[in-house]
Amino acid sequence: MYAARAFRDFGDGFAAVLLPVYLASIGLGPLEIGFVATAALLGSALLTLGIGFLAVRADLRTLLLASSGLMIATGLAYTQSSTYELVLLVAFLGTINPSSGSVSIFVPLEHAVLSRFVADADRTKAFARYSLLGALAAAFGALAATSPDFLVTIGISRLTALKAMFVLYASLGVAGSLVYARIPVGPKTSPQERPAATLGPSRAIVYKLAALFSIDAFAGGFAVQSLMALWLFSKFGLSLWAAGMFFFWSGVLSAVSFPIAAWLSKRIGLVNTMVFTHIPSSICLILAALVPNLHASLAFLLARAALSQMDVPTRSSYVMAVVTPPERPAAASVTSVPRSLAAAASPAIAGALFAAGLEAWPLVICGVLKILYDFAFLWAFRHIKPPEER
Questions:
Q1: Confidence label for 303 from pLDDT (cuts 50, 70 and 90)
Q2: Fewer CB atoms < 10 Å away: N or C end of the chain?
Q3: Cβ atoms 94, 367 nearer than 8 A
Q4: pLDDT digits (tens, 9 = 90+) for 110-126
Q5: Residue closest to 170 by CA, chosen among 98, 96, 64
Q6: What is the Cα–Cα distance from 390 to 382, expressed in whole angstroms?
Q7: What is the C-alpha separation between 203 and 271, in angstroms, rounded?
Q8: 2-25 and 30-54 are packed helices; what angle lies between their axes, rounded to 10 degrees?
Q9: pLDDT score of 199
């Protein structure tokens, strides 16, 4: 499972940086790029919802293999997409993730499989390792986003070089499918043994989590990695090589934060770890948007990267902890889907703000909304403890 996550996030790492570059190279503007990001997140939300509920009655390994097939098709389809309408369709139906986080149909399936093999006491540590390897892979993926510049120097056209990276994305889907094929098949169950509903006793808490997570995701959609790359390109004239290096170190800092988050959650709890690392990261994002100097802005963004993802393994662990085992696939799906749906709306708004010359506004809006979410989450869940904290 760790290896599959690494393959997938390596692909997302370079795709998120290169997607706006590729779209611009075929003639799309900032507003259209924002709509493509929205279409990708919206399609991901609908696919994630369907796959999460289907997972109750289907084998998880089979669903992961099918998802890998879709990843392969997505990479190849982007190489053949040259019009805005076709790009929108591929973005909506495909798996390429325009954000720095892992938002895709793979998430509820991988969470359910991972939770099946770990005890409560080790769950957060397992999710921290899972997130750590994914973040490191995404960081190296961002570094790989500089490859088209190298290919251009040896005589390959820029557009061909960009398309080659999407072929590489498809090949990573093949590698992931080979890993998923090694997952043990789940136990056979008769129709009478299967749960009557995908969510049962934990329904109320899952819906409350989903509502709050949607606020966080809507805020995050204003600063998805593709739009952050677009902002750095347009405001500071950053080169593709410099952007790749920045996102590499940003990913490394995020990765280092995951085991720290697991260690911290043992001492102050999962909810406190999520909230009290998230608020300073949002303040750094706001400051990065307001300072006029490139180096100061990058410094604040790197400080944000060191803090902003510490809620990822703790959030995943918390959701799996407060629901019963049969509800885990659906809970992961229901808490992920509102995030994707909410995040789908904001990139288009951010694209419109970019087109209007209000380049700092998306980052400021993102930071303010995330701080409001953190206080609301702390208020709602401060007394609901996972088993290992009771």
A1: very high
A2: C
A3: no
A4: 887 887 778 777 888 88
A5: 96
A6: 12
A7: 19
A8: 150
A9: 66
Give me the DSSP letters along 168-181.
HHHHHHHHHHHHHT
Q: What is the pLDDT of residues 259-297, one digit of tens each?
A: 898 889 888 989 999 999 999 999 999 999 999 888 899
- How far apart (Å, rounded) are the C-alpha atoms in residues 265 and 276? 11
What's the token pair of residue 192? 């009478």
Give SS3 for 317. Answer: helix
281-287 contacts at long range (C-beta below 8 A, 24 or more positions apart): 281/306, 281/307, 281/308, 281/370, 282/308, 282/366, 282/367, 282/368, 282/370, 282/371, 282/374, 283/367, 283/371, 285/223, 285/363, 285/366, 285/367, 285/370, 286/363, 286/364, 286/367, 286/368
Which tokens in the block code for residue 70?
A: 């879709």
H or E stretch covering 33: helix 30-54
Planar angle of CA 111, 257, 136, nearest 5 degrees: 70
b/e map of 329-367 (b: 16 or more CB within 10 Å)?
bbbbbbbbbbbbbbbbbbbbbbbebbeeeebbbbbbbbb
